[in-house]
Amino acid sequence: MIYQRTFAAVLASIAVLSLFRASAQAPPLQGSATGFINTLMPQPSQLSVQEGHLAITPSFSIATEHFRDARLDAALTRTVDRIRTRTGIFISSSPAVDAASAAMVVSVDGAGETIQSVDEDESYSLEINSSSAHLRAATVVGAIRGLATMEQLVQSDATGYFIPAVMIHDTPRFRWRGLMIDCGRHFIPVDVLKRTLDGMASVKLNVFHWHLSEDQGFRMESKAFPKLTEFGSDGLFYTQGQAREIVAYARDRGIRVVPEFDMPGHTSAWFVGYPDLASAPGPFHIERKFGVFDPVMDPTRESTYKFLDTFIGEMAAIFPDHFMHIGGDENNGVEWKANPRIQSFMREHNLKDTAALQNYFNQRLLKLLEKHGKHMAGWDEILTPDLPKDVMVQSWRGFESLAAGAKNGYTGILSAGYYLNLMSTAEAHYAVDPLPEKTDLTAEQQARILGGEACMWEEQTSPLDIDSRIWPRAATIAERLWSPRNVNDVDDMYRRLEVESLRLEGLGLTHISQEDVSLRQLSGSRQIAPLRILASVLEPVRFHERAHLQHANQLTPLDLLVDALPPDPPSRHNFELLMRVYLQNPGGRTQAETKLTADFSAWITAEPGILHLMAESPRLAQAEPRVEQLSELGTIGLDAVSYLSSGLPAAAGWKAARLAVLDEAEKPQALVRFTVIKPLRDLVNAVSETPAGK
Ligand code: ACM
After folding, report:
1. In terms of Cα–Cα distance, which of 308, 203, 194 is closest to 247?
2. Going by fewer Cβ within 10 Å, which terminus of the chain is more open, N or C?
3. Catalytic one of 113, 127, 245, 330
């Protein structure tokens, strides 16, 4: 983060390079005679840039043509409010009286589907010239997508705020573009979910997959079965009124809400209040640890289906979406094998193993879902040949199950590669395509791949840091699912992501601001400048590393340095770019050299200030070894730059010794890791050495 302002010139040159590398079909990325700067995310499917721009003035107003309803009016008001906030220009929220006098005209054919489905028409066109803007869409959802683009088009220069003249025809590549949030392991409050929905709408995601039950908590009020939350939630659950509020809030933004009640496994929390549903006698407790546990529903008792019939009926009335997700993942079958009654049921029904018994359970569940008007969605474990073809499979274990499902007639979405909780980079997620160019699927099979979902599992995440775990990385998955396949320039993605990240913060998300809040709380001081220098080159270790090192459970406070830091901070890619530019001309006294030298010096001089803060904060002091390492990295950097700029060789053995320091610094420590090791290795390797013995 410390790089983004002073480093603007270098970034701009890289961005211009990426312009020339853009393929012929891809939309233009940045720069043109018109001064248009493309910061759209996701990129539209077709974009052409015209001369001129539409100035935003106090008389800017929007009129509707043909059709309007309350949802469209609310969307227009939101857009006007945001443009007003962004520009500081007082624009009235009331619609223009007639289209002829309006700066922007919105022509929509109709409301769209009463219950939004995967087939909803989300396409739109946007035509902007120097006197007016015209947004056209078949449905209100299409108009909402176009308004999100309009908000992203707002630009400024020294003369004022404006919307560049462009012609956009846009339609999504995939119809199912989701974000799953696990509210079972850590409860996520309604206001956090609402701002997340605002972020989703900004990047045109259209499904909120709400994971509502887990071993660690049952989060949805049931009036038919009140003991589900009375005993299974620690008092942290959504009332039915709140769930309806979320559904309405999402619908207002063209987002479907697909609830998930994970069964037959991951169900410990159900059994605390209703032990008769379980396959073992109990007693049961809310599970505090994380992992895969034995408690599982009893699929052999009619009373289980009677319960689920009533429960699904109750939930179907709250969640209007055509799909209900039944989970189905990670049932270890232990309790089924241990129960003689269940074993004899399996023999009587010719069910050869626990997978066959789970298939029997799914078949029964499917009938109940159908009775209540729902299609079934489930994780890829549910994929068995005798399930009907209208079941939708969510692939989390690998791309293979998605392709296998498509070949066997099932629709599916991809989540393998989109697990945000793994603390991977935006570019790693960006590279994952539900339908790669090289595929052996026929056109008909390809059409069964509906899209994908980013997944935010909550073992290591709390309401405080969830925004920085989702944003801005989810925006890159949103682009992968919306934009043409050939929109894949990583440098340009990061350039636009940085702009979108600020826009998302403007919507109320706290993924940027929370870092400083947490650093102040950790250090007990406002004077966090030295700490920010350290924090800007650190990120959380990978999910599995943390699980292995920390052994956290649901009650572990998530308030260490690792929890303050965003995964894949802007510094990582920016430093990589800076090093790339520097190493093109290492002896050249370039701007890149000046910037690198300033950074390395800052890493060294920050040390006493950070140690001073750490002396007062045992929580922060856990990361103390990182401070000395930061200073060592700074010294290595300065030495390397000095060899390279002088053209003099280092003594024999210099490189090996420095690379060993980098190897040591790369190891996880205090649950955080440096973001700058690889470019530093490139830098050290670029130095030449005096041959040994000279
Ligand atoms: C999953 O990650 N168990 C779906």
Report:
1. 194
2. C
3. 330
DSSP notation for 236-279:
--B-HHHHHHHHHHHHHTT-EEEEEEEESSS-HHHHHH-GGGBS
Structure tokens at 40: 């759209």
Determine which residue's CA is closest to atom 2 belonging to ligand 1. Answer: 396
Q: Could you confirm whether 330 is annotated as catalytic?
A: yes
Please give the radius of gyration of the chain, using alpha carbons only, rounded to the nearest integer.
Answer: 27
Cα–Cα dist 28/412, whole Å:
32
Task: In whole angstroms, give the CA distance from residue 422 to residue 461.
Answer: 11
d(C-alpha 243, C-alpha 257), whole Å: 10
pLDDT of residue 6: 36
What is the signed CA dihedral for 366, 370, 373, 374, rounded to 10 degrees?
A: 20
Phi, psi of 599 (to 5 degrees): -65, -50
- CA 145 to the chain's CA centroid: 18
DSSP 8-state code for residue 5: T
Q: Which two tokens stand for residue 509?
A: 């998300």
Question: What is the rounded CA–CA span in Å between residue 524 and residue 222?
Answer: 42
The series of mean pLDDT values per 10 residues for the chain, 694 residues long, is 38 39 39 75 97 94 94 96 95 81 95 98 97 97 98 94 97 98 98 98 99 98 98 98 98 98 98 98 96 97 98 98 97 97 98 96 97 97 86 93 94 98 98 96 97 98 97 98 98 98 98 98 96 97 96 95 98 97 93 97 98 96 96 98 96 98 95 98 97 70
* Domain covering 176-506 assigned CATH 3.20.20.80 in the classification: yes
Ligand 1 closest atom vs CA 455: 2
Would you say the CATH fold of 176-506 matches that of 46-170? Answer: no
Number of Cβ within a 10 Å radius of residue 159: 8
CB burial class (10 A; 0-12, 13-18, 19+) of residue 411? Answer: buried
CB 201 within 8 A of CB 140: no
- Between CA 123 and CA 131, with CA 125 as vertex, the angle to 5 degrees is 160
Which ligand 1 atom is nearest residue 419's CA? 2
Would you state the pLDDT for residue 14?
43
* Cα–ligand 1 centroid distance for 435 (angstroms): 21
Q: Are 582 and 593 in contact (CB under 8 A)?
A: yes
CA distance 221 to 232: 11
Say what the pLDDT of residue 388 is. Answer: 85
Sequence-distant (6+) residues with CB within 8 A of 83 are 56, 60, 89, 91, 151, 154
CB 450 within 8 A of CB 494: no
Q: What is the residue extent of each domain of the chain?
A: 46-170, 176-506, 513-686
Pair of tokens at residue 433:
């395509």
**Is the omega angle on the peptide bond into residue 281 within 30 degrees of 0, that is, cis?**
no
Protein residue with least CA distance to atom 3, ligand 1: 329
pLDDT at residue 34 in the model:
60
CA of 139 to the centre of ligand 1 (A): 34
Our mutation pick for probing the ligand 1 site, out of 325, 418, 456, 457, counting the most ligand atoms within 8 A of Cβ, is: 457
**Could you tell me if 126 and 165 are in contact, meaning their C-beta atoms sit under 8 angstroms apart?**
no
Which residues surround ligand 1 with Cβ inside 6 Å?
329-330, 379, 396
Residue type, position 671, single letter: L
CATH architecture entry for 46-170: 2-Layer Sandwich (3.30)
Burial of 495 (0-12, 13-18, 19+ CB in 10 A): buried
Q: Round to whole Å and give the CA distance between 15 and 692.
A: 42
Contacts of 337 (CB under 8 A, 6+ apart): 343, 354
Please list, in sequence order, all residues whose beta carbon lies within 8 angstroms of the beta carbon of residue 114, skipping any fewer than 6 positions away.
none
Would you give the DSSP letter of residue 420? G
Coil, helix or strand for 165?
A: strand
Helix (H) or strand (E) holding 155, with range, is: strand 155-157
DSSP state of 507: T
